[in-house]
Amino acid sequence: MAKIQAIRGMNDILPDQTPVWQYVESTVRKVLAQYGYQEIRMPIVEQTELFKRSIGEVTDIVEKEMYTFDDRNGDSLTLRPEGTAGCVRAAEEHGLLFNQTRRLWYTGPMFRHERPQKGRYRQFHQIGVECFGMAGPDIDAELLVLTARLWAAFGLEDHASLEINSIGTSESRKVYRDALVSYLEQFRDQLDEDSKRRLTTNPLRILDSKDPQTRKLLEGAPSLSEYPDDESQRHFEQLKALLDAAGVTYTVNPALVRGLDYYGKTVFEWVTQSLGAQGTICAGGRYDGLVEQLGGKSTVAVGFAMGLERLILLLETLGLVPDEVNNAADIYVTAMGDPVIASAMAVADRLRNELPGRVVVTHCGGGSFKSQMKKADRSGARYAVILGENELANGTAGLKPLRDDQPQQDVPQADLARVLAELV
Q: Chain-wide mean pLDDT for the chain?
């Protein structure tokens, strides 16, 4: 019978990989806690209509990438392709938004049916941050200062650069959209196939095209910056002033538009040159109309999401994962013979009580001295505690270094924790 394997693009995260994930997640959690952000947890399955209304029916995500199915009641459900819509739905449904400000964050898997490649998978994990009820550029700036602090915590400050833009209100974008379409229609036959389709569905996404011929044509296209509304322009100028005051370096990228329909005013991306084509490690912007669009009362909002797979890949590529981030044990307690097992387990538990934060592994499954020491070595532990019938009778334990050539010593069991505290 053939073995069943994981679905293509949906990867297992194995025990030797999870310490890096835990390190990244805990670091982000600490930084967010410093700024007063609260965690929210949403289901991974939502009504399909939620994403059609928020992301936009003529986006690539809704048209080609969502995992959508009918349940037994005939309802159309979708595995979430992104987190913002679900967060808005949950916050509105539970009364978290009306006449309130909120700083929320979440983490978990997202799903898109894309061609799997390094740093981009069909099941991928994001950390998302969403802020509600704050209209000024100060909260936009806080998010960018926060992410700059996060890159510093990871040692990435020289490997992540910020690009920002203002895409105006929906009204100003409509005027620009008409001008862009009018320009590109002259060159329809020269556009790549995706851009031809977007010309009638989502023309602003053409600005993101990677096709060389289309990029060349866009050099003569009208710029979004030529169609600003006064409100968005003031907001953007104030944001830049706040970033300057905070010492956050940025580049204004007029071609930056983001791929989801709900964005307006500020949009931004943190990008890196260290991962080739998969250069975006964090992206977001304002979405002041989304709450109302999904049936709630008008509520201003801004947020971002970062992909964990890509962030971890960047840290590993640059060698920035700390050495102490591993699965290694600190101490491995052996039991030489059945009469010693209960005592070995008791010794190990006393060490856990007296050495909090140290990893103490108790050998289970029996075996010879040689086989137990091999397992002790493979555990990564720095010291093995050796307990046999002689040690049990004498109230001692053998303490054997596993990472250098120092001799084994006998230590009274009562002194074991104190001695190990100085060594590990």
A: 91
Alpha-carbon distance 309 to 125, whole Å? Answer: 7
The pair of structure tokens assigned to 9 is 């693009």
Whether 175 has a pLDDT exceeding 80, the answer reads: yes
Cα–Cα distance, 37 to 135 (Å, whole number): 17
**DSSP label at residue 61:** I
Site of tokens 């040690």: 391
Alpha helices in 94-136 (DSSP H): none
The answer to whether 289 touches 262, Cβ cutoff 8 Å, is yes
How far apart are the C-alpha atoms of 193 and 54, rounded to whole Å?
A: 25
Token digits of residue 112? 């898109």
Q: In angstroms, rounded to a whole number, what is the distance separating the alpha carbons of residues 348 and 368?
A: 19
Q: Are 53 and 84 in contact (CB under 8 A)?
A: no
Beta-bridge mates of residue 334? 386
Q: Binning pLDDT at 50, 70 and 90, where does residue 137 land?
A: very high
Tokens 């309802």 correspond to: 75
- DSSP state string for 184-215: HHTTGGGS-HHHHHHHHH-GGGGGG---HHHH
Q: How many CB atoms lie within 10 A of CB 255?
A: 14
pLDDT band at 125; cut points 50, 70, 90? very high
Q: Which two tokens stand for residue 202?
A: 């989502």
Q: How far apart are CA 81 and CA 128, in angstroms?
A: 12
Phi, psi (rounded to 5 degrees) for 145:
-65, -40
Beta strands in 346-417 (DSSP E): 360-362, 383-387, 396-401, 409-412
pLDDT by residue (tens digit) across 73-120? 999 999 999 999 999 999 999 999 988 999 999 999 999 998 887 767
> What is the spatial distance between Cα 265 and Cα 287, in angstroms, rounded to a whole number?
8
Rounded to 5°, the CA angle 111-112-118 comes to 95
d(CA 135, CA 101): 10
Compare 191 and 201 and report the one with higher pLDDT: 191
**209 vs 188: which has the higher pLDDT:** 188
